[in-house]
Amino acid sequence: MNNCESEEIVEAANIAISNLLPTKSRSLYDIAYNRRNILWLSCLIIYDNIDISKFPKLIAFLKRTGDGYQAKKSKILTKGEIDRFLSSADDKEFLMIKVVLILGIAGACRTDELVNLTVDDIEDVGSSLIAKIPNTKTKISRTFVVTDVGNMLELFRKYLSLRPPHVKHKRLFCTTKQENVVRSQLARIPWEKFLV
């Protein structure tokens, strides 16, 4: 058997394979078969112009190293821990964190949603707070209510009264320096101080 005959056999096999699926199903099959379902593979192709499918040893290595991986469980505060923190933590040092915790749990907010909250987004109606989050990650604004359980509204009102009156920005949370609320806006939630 010479090289010419083997090329003819390969070509005949490729033609037979292409005729296995009906023409209507072929396009859907090609899309599903060639789909990159892992985000970082897509990023490699888009940003770095690297097609990982050309490196079979790397794919095998990644599959081997991924076996047995277990994600680290997030630490979650219990209701008792939250109540103890809200009642016993010093307001001079942790008032902003208390308000962040109250709003974050009541509205199931992400940290960037909390940082971007403005004074206009929260309405005090006496017996409760109505908070609106206009810019969410899912692009769907949502509204939630914080009721007066414990001293939650009192903590929020205390924080709002300590906020400087002539602040140029509308963000709810301002930075704190040496237990004083400063006029500059908060860029991120300082969790390190809270988690120690």
Automatic annotation (TrEMBL):
Start and end residues of each Tyr recombinase domain: 72-196
Domain of life: Eukaryota
One Pfam family cited in the UniProt record for this chain: Phage_integrase
Gene3D superfamilies the record matches: Intergrase catalytic core
InterPro entries in the cross-refs: DNA_brk_join_enz (IPR011010), Integrase-like_cat_sf (IPR013762), Integrase_catalytic (IPR002104)
Alphabetized GO MF terms: DNA binding
Keyword Ligase attached: no
One Gene Ontology biological process: DNA integration
Leader sequence residues: none
Keywords: DNA recombination
Name of the protein in question: Tyr recombinase domain-containing protein
